[in-house]
Specification:
6 helices, 10 strands, seven-stranded mixed β-sheet, three-stranded antiparallel β-sheet, single chain, 208 residues
């Protein structure tokens, strides 16, 4: 982890400008085309949910600006980020949040997710995991599509953990289209950075 010198940081002025806001967050819902990706995943018997988490994390970890986090008056830069994602108990319909180390191949990552989900009995991660900021919060609403989405959170302007969520894909004109929402902190990331993520994920899944 690297401590950033704010005086020489190229984003210093933008960081200071958006730091004047009590709610510096913005959320954009876009669309991913998973027409080719969905059957590719299913042919290999991977989880579509875990596979899209893998795609998201691969792209985000490859974009250095997403590695910055705010800690009080300081900014740090992590080496990489891990996903902390929601799964549901099929019997009780209650959610469980699982944090999994990111890395390896898609197959290895999917297997790791299965193991971590099975081993974790508590619905929530331990307190030390909850205190981490080198995470991406990911969730899915597979029962319905949406055009907008908000996230539950404390109003803490230092919260710099991205929130990513997607919904049920819909067939339109022969294509499978999936709503894909991203929430970011404007103190660290602008619309251009958001486009790098969304377009990057689309490119990644198109190349499978």
């Amino acid at each position: 982890m690297e401590l950033i010198d704010l005086e020489t940081w190229t984003r210093k002025e933008h960081f200071q400008f958006f730091s004047g806001l009590s709610f510096p967050f913005y959320n954009v819902t876009s669309t991913l085309d998973v027409t080719e990706f969905y059957p590719w995943v299913k042919e290999r018997k991977y989880s579509f949910y875990y596979s899209l988490i893998y795609a998201t994390m691969t792209v985000m970890n490859g974009l250095p600006d997403y590695l910055y986090k705010i800690r009080g008056g300081q900014v740090v830069k992590h080496d990489h980020l891990d996903p902390s994602f929601v799964v549901m108990d099929g019997n009780t319909h209650l959610l469980k949040i699982v944090t999994v180390p990111f890395g390896g191949s898609l197959e290895e990552f999917c297997d790791r997710c299965v193991r971590y989900e099975a081993v974790q009995k508590s619905p929530f991660p331990p307190a030390e995991s909850e205190a981490r900021d080198d995470l991406v919060y990911i969730s899915c609403l597979p029962w319905m599509s949406f055009t907008s989405l908000t996230n539950e959170m404390d109003i803490n302007p230092d919260d710099s953990i991205p929130r990513v969520a997607w919904g049920k894909f819909e067939k339109r004109e022969g294509r499978l289209l999936l709503p894909y929402a991203v929430q970011l902190n404007h103190r660290l990331l602008d619309g251009w950075h958001l486009s790098q993520l969304v377009n990057g994920v689309q490119t990644w899944i198109d190349q499978r």
